[in-house]
Design a protein that fits this description.
The protein is of the alpha/beta class. It has a domain of 192 residues: 3-Layer(aba) Sandwich (Rossmann fold), CATH 3.40.50. It contains nine helices and nine strands. β2 and β3 form a beta hairpin. The longest helix is centred in the last third of the chain and has 19 residues. It is globular. It starts with a strand and ends with a helix.
């Protein structure tokens, strides 16, 4: 692991790091904020998964999470959204696929299967690196994300209900199997047979028996992607049918941007901290 930068913030340290990833077969970059409480012992970990076109840096620069994370004593880990590099297959003119659009799945189709293994990266390789190099209490973890990252957070939590104490999302893609801006990517990564897609679709996972204690979702009512891509009412229907408590907050006037995310970031961190303390 290489340290690319560290800066003191709110009494803690915001760092950016890189390493050679075995899962993604390339160099990967990630950000970690360590709160001041870590000087006295390991702190709980909150994972933030970013959305389409983003890197680790978008939330680090615009998410406004450090003040509250420092107050609550939370380590915040921000992975990248896809493998990157000259040897990584990509479609540079397609913002919904390839670089910046890994969809937190493990691709099975050539040529993408060699690099696009973001679910293994986020759930196996990077947690091991965090546990070995940071004052992290890995027995207390939560996960949240935005848009494509909200999709990733929901699906990963549903697959690992014993690992994560809580899960929330900002404007998640809740049914990527049928959403216009994710269906094509799923076919390229996973093949034409839609049966394997269900393992990376929150609504389908719930329909197939996956369960989680509860979810918090914030969605802007003025989000331009609301009707065609996000469709939170589908998650609401799935959770209601399965008996999973869902707090879905439709926020009037808010769009899909980090102005929206930063507005409700404190709420989400406090919500996670309360459950991490239980």
């Amino acid at each position: 692991m290489k340290t690319l930068s560290t800066s003191k913030s709110h009494g803690g340290v915001q760092g950016v790091y890189s390493h050679v990833s075995q899962a993604c077969a390339c160099d990967m970059t990630f950000a970690v904020f360590v709160p001041p409480q870590a000087a006295n012992g390991p702190c709980p970990v909150v994972w933030y998964l970013s959305g389409l076109t983003c890197t680790h840096q978008n939330v680090m620069d615009k998410g406004e999470y450090r003040r509250m994370a420092a107050e609550l004593g939370l380590i915040v880990v921000c992975p990248d959204t896809s493998p990157r590099g000259d040897s990584v297959p990509d479609e540079k003119d397609n913002w919904q696929f390839g670089s910046g659009a890994g969809f937190y799945l493990d691709a099975t189709e050539a040529p993408y299967a060699a690099n696009y293994r973001m679910q293994s990266y986020v759930t196996e390789e990077l947690p091991a690196l965090i546990a070995a190099n940071f004052p992290a209490d890995m027995s207390r973890q939560s996960i949240f994300g935005h848009s494509m990252g909200g999709h990733g957070a929901l699906t990963i939590a549903l697959k690992h209900p014993d690992r994560f104490k809580s899960c929330s999302a900002f404007a998640p893609i809740v049914r990527p199997m049928t959403a216009d801006w994710s269906r094509n990517a799923f076919e390229k990564y996973l093949g034409a047979d839609t049966a394997p897609w269900r393992a990376y679709d929150a609504c389908a996972l719930i329909e197939d028996g996956a369960r989680f204690a509860e979810f918090l979702v914030d969605q802007g009512e003025s989000d331009g992607f609301l009707r065609d891509g996000l469709r939170p009412w589908l998650l609401e229907e799935a959770c209601t049918a399965a008996g999973i408590p869902l707090t879905l907050r439709m926020q009037p006037g808010y769009d899909h941007s980090y102005f929206f995310i930063s507005t409700f970031m404190d709420d989400h961190l406090a919500w996670h901290a309360a459950r991490l303390a239980q």
